[in-house]
Target: Transcriptional regulator
Amino acid sequence: MFGFRDIEIIRSVVRYGGFRAASDATGLAQSAISRRIRHLEDRMGITIFERDGRGVRLSATGRRLCDEAEVLIAQRDRILGELTQGVMAGVVRLGVAETMTHTILPRLLTDLGQRHPMLRFEISVDTSDQMGQALKDDTLDVVIMLRDQAPRGIALTPVPPVTMGWFVSPAHFTLPDPADIDDLAALPIVSFPKTTSPHRQVLELLTPGRRQPATVHGSASIATMLHLVRQGFGIGTIPHSIVEAWPHSMLHEINVRPKARLPDLEFGICYDPERNEEIGREISRAALEISSV
Model:
């Protein structure tokens, strides 16, 4: 119905006190200014200026139009400034594996918020396979996920590995010190979901050569894993950093023989370099800086 140029012309008439003064100030012909405003009034079906023998003044509708238009002009100028001056702004759809929500995520978002106050984050917590698909479908911009489940064709920045341990509630189970694979496999085990590499690694560690395969339960929720292990449902394969962050869980690490030790979890910052290289590189920078402290 109207453009920024229309608003600028109306503002010039108000600012300089009439069509003739606006013509002198802007270099536009007075007739062109009058014609443009008249056509705008006709298109919108409103009266912007009330005319009398002493000149023109804004109508009540015209004043409201100018007030609302000032907001639009301010938003336009802000957007142009952000785009031309390299300011990061807008919404970032960030996918995070739950392990990272208890470790790197809080400090990461604090750092990014301080550096780029115009950014807004929509955070999704899911399994790495689900987030990898969301990254391909462009429903997430950047993902912190297990590296071996990252889709092809994406940019990946490794972050320091997360160490894993076997944990138990001493009130429910007593194991030898150190425990061997047979000792662990004899008990129910709570681990990551069966679609993930940590779950497969546990099965590969405990199952070979056994008539009875180990019983490994999968959970997508680390909080659920902690509660199940605490209540004696089984022993758990849990990141050290998670148990340290939840001291009230009262879990103890099981001392195991070297061949029963769990491999580290390898995570990475992943993004499509064609769509999200700028924000992907910035999140990667922040994650590496935080991890090095």
About this structure: The two ends are 55 Å apart (CA to CA). The CA atoms of residues 1 and 44 lie 7 Å apart. The domain at 164-260 is CATH 3.40.190.10 (D-Maltodextrin-Binding Protein; domain 2).
